[in-house]
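User: Teach me something about this protein's shape.
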Amino acid sequence: MPAYSHILLAVDFSRTAEAVAEQALLLRKTFDARLSMVHVVEFVPVDLSSELVMPTDLEIDQELLDQADKRLRELGEKYGVPESERFVSQGSTRREILRIAEEQSVDLIVLGSHGREGIQRLLGSTANAVLHGAPCDVLAVRIRD
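Assistant: First, the predicted structure itself:
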């Protein structure tokens, strides 16, 4: 196994995220590596009746980003990841993970993979997309539902 100097942990705030984080933390300790964290907020456009009084899309987007930032801050403090190494981004999860990995000169991306089968496999997954587009090694931690 090669030595890693900078690890990027992709966090999705799911109930299984702790298992993925444990692997990244173990690798950080093993290689005395720098650890960064990223969470990507993907926006799903919602078309609601004009009769409903709803906040604007920008207000909803900002609220989602604020919540993600708060949760990533809490995890960063828990795992000892400094604020300068925590990234909240919006857009395509795959593209944003790859962009940050490249910008930060990461040599290992750690993320969770559900190992789906059948139609879910045909549709692809974030882990698979990151694996095939990454400029570095990728560790997909198997998550069992």
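Now, about its shape. The domain at 6-142 is CATH 3.40.50.620 (Rossmann fold). The chain has five helices and five strands. If you'd like, I can walk through any region in more detail.
User: That's plenty for now, thanks!
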